[in-house]
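Our collaborator T.R. sent over the components below with a one-line note: 'Predict the complex.' Nothing else. No constraints on interfaces, no templates requested, no preferences about which chain binds where. So this is a plain run: every listed entity goes in together, and whatever single assembly comes back becomes the starting point for the next discussion.
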Amino acid sequence: MSFPENFLWGASSSSAQVEGGYSSDGKGLTIWDVKPLNPGTCSFHYASDFYHHYKEDIALMAEMGFKAYRMSISWARIMPEGEGNINQAGIDFYKNVFLECHKYGIEPIVTIFHFDLPLALQVKYGGWNNRSMIDAYVEYCRVLFENFKDDVKYWLTFNEQNMLIFFGAFDMIGGITKAQSLNTLYNQAHIQLVAQAKAIHLCHEMCPNSKIGPAPNLTTSYPKTSSPKDYLAAMNMDDLRNNFYTDALIFGRYPKSVYKYFEMNDVVLDVHEGDFECMGTCHPDFLGFNCYGNDTTEYLEYYKQDLSSLKNADNRDTSYLQALMSKPGIGRGVNNEYFKKSEIDGHIYDPYCIRVTARRLTERYHLPLIITENGYGRADILEDDGSVHDQYRIDHLREMIRQMEIGIEEGADIMGYCPWSALDLVSTREGISKRYGFIYVDRDEDDEKAKTSPMKRYKKDSFYWYKKVIETNGKELGE
Ligand code: BG6
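Returned assembly:
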């Protein structure tokens, strides 16, 4: 049993969550710089200060033996107003990051847009509701392709576009507290898909040596029972949550079951001439996807959903998530008694998620796959001697990798694995206390302290474990 030669072992991050330097050297503000925060959590202003520590961080990644580093570019660092002016200091920063990666033979896998929309575009266009965003995004892509075509081999168009929409009624990740109707959301999704298709066309034109694909968060829905109603609910949930986004960019159409959901919920898509043709002919070279755990779905009768009570809710509360995951007329997410429970901390997880979903995607799309996120976030303890004993994380990742390998043997065409995250960074909703990294970053939730903190880096136990995994191409996973 072994992983393919040249398998892209690495890890992930995103600009807003790792960089800091939120107003340094001409960077414009993003919606994440002003996003409402849950009580007690830090902002994204200083993050893990990768902006000043990138050399040290990339050297640590090289020490782990990374073949790839999945990262994102901050649109507002390149174009402070989102369009028009180009900030040379931003271009230089990413040039240096890529240079540093290549020095160690690390292939950057670069997300063009990972949630941190330039604030100026939000103000000017109201965000993705406006088709002018297509031109703004494509213009930004042109700047990236022009400047980095020789530095970047793998581009990702959008991070988790589907989560922005699926949870977007009260936005979990973008920081929107105003209710958005389903009609607004799915029209945004359509605009975002046309924008991505145009960017893929442009990349093929401008960067013949690069490859490009999307990076949604993909799962597979397990039916709660063997009742045909639950089975159909699971199929329809997959169409709504997953296939809607990938079918569009690969087949140039939306799954038919989604139109039924649209009809029930008064969603009417404003499709312009040529949209489907543009999507159907863009041909992504691969499919990146984030996969933390699959869903389990139970049929849910249609009723008119009122989510207004969720306004300003603390979105760390899981009932908030449950409510946003309920899709009347399709199904709702429920617990799965077959998932694994960690002996160390009781954490429940689905080690089969990548294996199952990657097999499903290979069969449906026949495209190579890169796992762009997967992982386990929780608090870690930095001991006095500088060690961090994160055996729970090792156990979690080991089970995922074990099943992923079997999935590859069964035919899943996976070419890389980049779990979340290379180093600790700020969680979307839970500050810096929820840690995912192989590298510990010494800071807490206090922004004032973070401003001047040296943010020293420490190697966690998982750092040494992952180094061994990569060195042996996945043969030695430990017990
Ligand atoms: C993914 C995102 O949804 O999950 C990341 O792409 C995010 O940006 C990660 O950080 C983990 O989620 P959270 O909410 O624990 O930070």
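Summary for T.R.: Residues 405 and 478 are 15 Å apart (CA to CA).
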